[in-house]
Design a protein that fits this description.
Layout lengths: L1 E6 L3 H12 L4 E7 L2 H10 L4 E5 L7 H11 L5 E5 L3 H10 L4 E4 L4 H12 L7 H11 L13 H11 L4 H8 L3 H15 L4 H10 L5
Parallel strand pairs: 1-2, 1-3, 3-4, 4-5
Amino acid sequence: MLKVLISDDHTLVRKGLRHILLDTKDVGVVDEARDGKETISKVCAHDYDVVLLDISLPGRSGIDVLKQLKALKPKLPVLILSMHPEEQYAVRSLKAGASGYLTKESAPDELLEAVQRLAKGGKFITPSLAEKLASEVGGKSENMPHETLSDREYQVMCMIASGKTVKEISVDLDLSAKTISTHRARILEKMGMKNNANLTYYAIKLGLVD
């Protein structure tokens, strides 16, 4: 019987995932964590077969938490669950050590298949994501401006491009408005852009935001 940890800051999402997982003979224990700190604490205290990790956690991003999890337990399989499409975070997540990436719109059967595959030491990626990875490995992908950003900067860029204000982003990420403004300034500098409108146009053109 598999032991799974669900890390997500939304109670309804955790309960929904818990119900799906326990409604199968393969999963025996499902624990929950509300943020990165609790996730790290529980992984240090217990042995899990798979961790389901939301990429949009408050305070620390899911990718930051993922990197720490892999540093603590390199063999622990982590499946990233996100409301964002693959274009936004999938490749970054896999490069950071994730064993798979699924959007929250995926069917329950797909989630269960992913958990089972990861528990056996495998990977779970969709055909479209596999194509993106093959393109990068083959050297076919161009070095785009957003690829110069850190994971946190990239997250902030996507939120800005989605129309959120500095104050709204600071609340969502549990960071100060000053910190978000600093990230914004660095993003504009790295990408050679002047304002939010430039970022928004760029992100929409590349399909990085809905």
